[in-house]
Write a structure and sequence with these properties.
Blueprint: H1 2-21, H2 30-49, H3 51-70, H4 73-93
Length: 101
């Protein structure tokens, strides 16, 4: 029981450290997102017009729609996000960039 307790405490400590590091990265104003959408709209339309990108995106959208209608998509996302987040944070920790997810 003692070992389990120490493992749980270490896990909570590491999680608290990660949350503390990520506390200041989500304060981007809405108008910056609007400017980004305005200036990037022509590039996005060109990407979508490309059949090489359009058909895979269409297939991915259809798969996500079917998974959502079956009620499985939220479960898969809940399982995948922590794995993706830890992988991206591990990659970002190896770079000099101070950004974490």
């Amino acid at each position: 029981m003692r070992n389990k307790f120490y493992e749980d405490i270490d896990f909570l400590f590491e999680e608290a450290i990660q949350r503390h590091r990520n506390s200041g990265t989500g304060d981007i104003p809405w108008w910056i997102w609007a400017l980004l959408a305005w200036f990037a709209s022509d590039n996005v339309m060109n990407w979508i017009a490309s059949p090489i990108l359009f058909y895979p995106l269409l297939m991915l959208g259809m798969i996500c729609t079917v998974l959502h209608s079956m009620g499985v998509l939220s479960i898969l996302l809940d399982l995948a996000f922590p794995i993706i987040k830890s992988t991206v944070n591990n990659l970002l920790a190896k770079t000099p960039v101070g950004i974490r997810i």
